Amino acid sequence: MIKRAHIHQFLAVVETGSFTQAAQRIRVTQPTLSSGIADLERLVGTRLFLRDRRHVRLTEAGARFLPMARELQRGFRAIDAFSVVPDIDWPQLRLGLIRTLASPVVDLILTRLGAEFSMEIVEGTDSELRAGLAQGRIDLIASLLRPREVGEGIIPLLSEPYVLFAATHSPLAGRKRVKPDDLASEIMIARRSCEVLEQTSRFFTRHGVRPRFALRSDNEDLCMRLVSSGIGVTTAPLSFDRPGLSAVSVQGYDLSRTIGFVLDPSWRKGPSSEVVLRCVHAIAHEVARLALHAEDPSISGRVGKRIRP
């Protein structure tokens, strides 16, 4: 018999495009998820996914099964809503945060919005958050803004360069700019959540830099702690700057990003939209104030380019 867990697991893999990320989302181990999908495929009598080392995609049968799975999921939720009467309206706001937001920025967002709404927080990549927004599972996201992405309900928060970070006691500390080949002997820390990981890898390969890696991890805090302890260096958005780190510009490494809010179009017409927009504009103003006045070293830059509100 197909169970609710089977449908939950199947949709998680579809929505994330990855067994690893799906397991993290629904908080099970990857072997448990793989076993559940294999059990579901046995029950329906056919393969639902095609897998290789880099991609997971639906088979033809999986694509036919997808609308049925979504209908079952809606049915399960309707049963939950029918059988359980909530005591409070929760959550009032479903907020999506891109995984690579710097902690001071996250603090500002949660403090301001948390004072107005009860919230459910969803963490993910830009593509995951935008999919959730499009499917009505998320109301507001703080994520990457694309070039020339403007319009009602889109509020830019900050623009910043990617820079090299080294420990303050490193020989690189205090240098405003280095050449790529100056880093040939450095041990690197790979931030696997980095949005420009592939571009960064190609940049250093193009300049003949093939570093050794002390760590490859999705854990941003662990990566930056290893850098501040002197175990290695890494590239990251400038807002990741914090005590114990020195930010250094790398010649020719001119990648940057813009972070902003995107609000679900249906929410823009709702009764709470005015409060949400007031909050996000206040957050943007606070980030701008910190960036311009350098009151927080985590927000202001110590290299040539600084975060731009």
H-E string: HHHEEHEHEHEEEEHEHEEEH
The whole-number mean of residue pLDDT values reads: 87
Helix fraction? 25-40%
Shape: globular
Instruction: Tell me the major beta sheet.
Output: 8 strands, mixed
- Number of separate strands: 12
**What would you call the structural class?**
alpha/beta
What does this structure look like?
The protein is of the alpha/beta class. It has helices at 4-16, 19-26, 30-44, 60-83, 103-114, 126-134, 197-206, 220-228, 273-293; strands at residues 49-51, 56-58, 93-98, 119-124, 140-144, 154-167, 177-178, 187-191, 212-217, 234-237, 245-250, 256-263. The strands form 3 sheets. Strands 3, 4, 5, 6, 7, 10, 11 and 12 form an 8-stranded mixed beta sheet that branches. Strands 1-2 form a two-stranded antiparallel ribbon. α1 packs across α2 (19-26), α2 (19-26) crosses α3 (30-44) and α5 packs antiparallel against α9. The relative contact order is 0.13.
Outline of the structure:
The chain is of the alpha/beta class and 309 residues long.
Provide the descriptors you would attach to this structure in a database record.
single chain; 309 residues; alpha/beta; two-stranded antiparallel sheet; 9 helices; 12 strands
